[in-house]
Write a structure and sequence with these properties.
- The chain has 271 residues and is of the alpha+beta class.
- It has a single domain, classed as outer membrane lipoprotein receptor (LolB), chain A, CATH 2.50.20.
- It is built from 5 helices and 14 strands.
- Strands 1, 2, 3, 4, 5, 6, 7, 8, 9, 10, 11, 12, 13 and 14 form a 14-stranded mixed sheet that branches.
- The relative contact order is 0.18.
């Protein structure tokens, strides 16, 4: 355990800030020194007791910046950058599937801020910048072992939900899944009180040399968090309003069914 911890700390200690243009499809913001793998289970439809959805998520930690996103979204961007001449169908033919989670969360980019970039179905790509949230953590005495690490419990209120976090000082990195950070160690598990969203720690590793934290060079609409939420909600309402069961295609019916069930976002505070 100690040897593994020293290796991870050394990886960040030796990190040098990295910034520059890698190619035309993205800008390199930082070099990824650590990769944390999580599994997210979530309930989009609050009317069903079933969790229903699961997705692998990754947190890339650099010397200055971190980025949290879906593994599928990360893989999709890598494919598009490395194969600009091929349609995304080629990526899908490799056994990949489209992701429902199309956001990237950059912490400390710019310094002291969080930047969120998200694609919204049928509309555009959006981005907004906000201060890194003050979560008001309450650290409690409860402890447990998670994948061999001694973790401690903390709770906070954020986005209209009560969250329970399990962090470990054995991995002294001020980061975690989604927007969460601000504890004296890496957040391993995050679970909301309603058990709708659960982030589970899987592993932490030193990624391959040359792994970077990227900003995709695509046109985005600059907005605010509330502005993005409004677009997302209006997009869903438009799908509901314009749906006609008699004339809609199979694909349109599938989209309608999926959008109709999305009534339980991770951040419930929308205004």
């Amino acid at each position: 355990m100690k040897a593994r911890l020293l290796l991870l700390i050394a990886a960040l200690a030796l990190a040098l800030p990295m910034r520059g243009q890698d190619d035309e499809c993205y800008e390199v913001l930082d070099e990824a020194k650590l990769r944390v793998n999580y599994t997210l289970t979530y309930r989009y439809d609050s009317t069903t007791p079933k969790i229903g959805k699961q997705e692998d998520m990754i947190l890339l930690i650099g010397s200055e910046i971190s980025c949290f996103q879906s593994r599928l979204y990360y893989s999709e961007m890598e494919f598009k950058c490395n194969n600009p001449q091929l349609p995304i169908d080629n990526w899908l033919e490799q056994g990949n599937v489209p992701t429902d989670i199309r956001y990237r969360i950059y912490k400390n980019y710019p310094i002291g801020k969080t930047t969120v970039m998200e694609r919204v179905i049928f509309t555009d790509s959006f981005e907004y910048v906000e201060d890194i949230p003050e979560f008001g953590w309450e650290i409690q005495e409860d402890t447990m072992r998670i994948e061999g690490y001694l973790a401690q419990k903390a709770v906070c209120q954020y986005g209209g939900r009560t969250w329970e976090a399990w962090f470990t000082e054995e991995l002294p990195f001020n980061d975690g899944p989604y927007k969460f950070c601000g504890l004296p160690g890496l957040i391993l598990n995050m679970i909301d009180a309603r058990r709708d969203y659960r982030f589970y720690f899987q592993s932490i590793e030193v990624p391959e040399k040359g792994t970077t934290i990227k900003w995709e060079n695509t046109e985005t609409v600059k907005t605010t968090k509330k502005g993005l939420f409004k677009v997302i909600d209006q997009s869903a309402e438009s799908v509901m309003r314009n749906f006609d069961d008699k004339t809609s295609t199979g694909a349109q019916k599938a989209i309608y069914k999926a959008m109709k069930s999305r009534n339980n976002p991770i951040e419930l505070d929308r205004k």
